Amino acid sequence: ASWRTKEGPPSTLIAGGGPAGLLTAIAFAKRGWTNIRVVDRLREPYDPGDELIWSDAARFYLVGLGLRGQTALTELGAWDTVQSYCAEVVGRKDWAPGAGPDEGVERIFTDRPVSTQVIARDRMQGALYKVAREKYGSQISFDWETEVDVEDDEVTLTRGSTEEVLRPDLVVGADGTARTVAMALEENDRRVRIKRYEDDNCRVFKTVPLDLPPDWRGDVNYSTRSKGGRMNFDALPCGRSNRYCGVLLLREDDPLAQEESDPKELRALMQECLPQFEPFVDDSNLQTIAKKPASRLPGFRYVGPKIHKTDKVVLLGDAIHTVKPYFGLGANSAFEDVTSLDKCLDSHETGADALRAFSRERAPEAKALVQISRGFDRPGF
User: Fold this and answer.
1) What does residue 250 show for φ and ψ, rounded to 5 degrees?
2) How far is it, in rounded angstroms, from Cα 126 to Cα 73?
3) For 29-72, what is each residue's pLDDT tens digit?
4) pTM of the model
5) Of 20, 100, 113, 192, which is most buried by a Cβ count within 10 Å?
6) Integer Cα distance of 164 and 157 in angstroms
7) N-terminal to C-terminal alpha carbon distance within the chain
8) C-alpha pair distances (Å), 238 with each of 47, 106, 121, 229, 358
9) Nearest to residue 148, comparing CAs of 319, 45, 24, 13?
């Protein structure tokens, strides 16, 4: 049957309630589809307007939304809400290895169609959840803390000791690096393969909250790195004031990347390598940073050459392309996946044709995205 009609498929299940899954639900509901169900194994998103939650700069990972992400969110009517919680970044200030605090080079970008907008990933999820509930609450239902198991055309949802078996007409795998749906497809279709790369530049990170003085710009990305490649440091704004969140990127075996590392050694490293930022990290925050374990970065993965199954299943977002987050490509590409799928539904008569066209368009994009990013990340030429 045609999915260009307002009704769409009789039932749709979206596995994954992150930003990509929620935007997919919004796109389908905007078309007029009903009986859309979003399931996720994690809790309901936080209120994006609760400043008490979002004031903790080191608690959440920041995402930069560029032209592709902003365009996708605008097309689907969600950008105004998301933007209201963003901080603008109009340029960069970089310090070369060993440079003094006054030797940073500032560049303000004046030739770009849009400025980058920075938001905590979980806050963006909360903003999209707000759009989905307020605009399309009668068309979309949400199940949180739900495990998803996919086998052939059946989906089993598990919440605690309760199980529910479904046979939805369309399943969207938007469950990110969990890839429950992708792995189920891989078992049943030799043309759906998950390419996993060994990480030959393994890094981990710790977040560093910063309250920069008022004479510092609050709308640029601050960046530096140490001689010898021991660490990289990037800081982005996370609010309407000069509150920043820095990311200290270290090698996995670095003593300061370990849990319960020595605060005095960390202070010495910051004085040596981050003299421009070290004065803004007080002893309390330093103790917290040294004490906590480092977080791991995802590995490079992509799915292809197919990312769908007939008119039953389709994959998008991080489920088909995972790169390290400092390339700034994940969320933007995921949102572009959603608008691409929406356009394929517009331009093809049947669901099977639409998913086939989407797979032809986005599977090569996912492969290129991952391979290029990995090429930049690897040591050597």
Assistant:
1) -130, 165
2) 14
3) 999 999 999 999 999 999 999 999 998 877 888 999 999 999 99
4) 0.95
5) 20
6) 5
7) 51
8) 16, 20, 11, 27, 35
9) 13
CA-wise closest residue to 223 among 55, 89, 87 = 89
Q: How far is 373 from 380, CA to CA, in rounded Å? A: 14
Q: And the tokens for 41?
A: 């194994």
3-state secondary structure of 314: strand
| Rg of the chain (C-alpha set) | 22
Q: What is the pLDDT of residues 109-142, one digit of tens each?
A: 999 999 999 999 999 999 999 999 999 999 999 9
Give which of 200, 207, 242 is closest to 62, Cα–Cα.
207
Compute CA distances 289 → 56, 58, 208, 285, whole Å: 13, 9, 7, 6
How many alpha carbons fall within 13 Å on the CB side of residue 342? 22
Burial classification of residue 379, based on how many CB atoms lie within 10 Å of its CB (0-12 exposed, 13-18 middle, 19 or more buried): exposed
Q: Are 117 and 10 in contact (CB under 8 A)?
A: no
Mean pLDDT of 77-91: 97
Please, which residues have CB within 8 angstroms of residue 306's CB and are 6 or more apart in sequence?
Answer: 189, 191, 192, 359, 363
Supply the DSSP symbol for 350.
B
C-alpha distances (whole Å) from 286 to each of 208, 234, 269, 271, 290 are 8, 17, 12, 12, 6
Q: How far is CA 81 from CA 9, 124, 153, in A?
A: 28, 9, 36
DSSP character for 76?
T
The whole-angstrom distance between residue 166's C-alpha and the CA centroid of its chain comes to 28
Among 190, 170, 191, 192, CA closest to 179: 192
For the chain, what is the mean pLDDT? 93
Pairing of strands 295-296, 87-89: unpaired
- pLDDT digits 0-9 by tens, 226-282: 988 899 999 999 877 789 999 999 999 999 999 999 999 999 999 999 999 999 999
What lies within 8 Å, CB to CB, of 117 at 6+ separation is 64, 65, 70, 82, 83, 86, 87, 88, 89
DSSP states along 151-195: ETTEEEEEETTEEEEE--SEEEE--GGG-HHHHHHHHH-TTEEEE
DSSP three-state, residue 41: coil
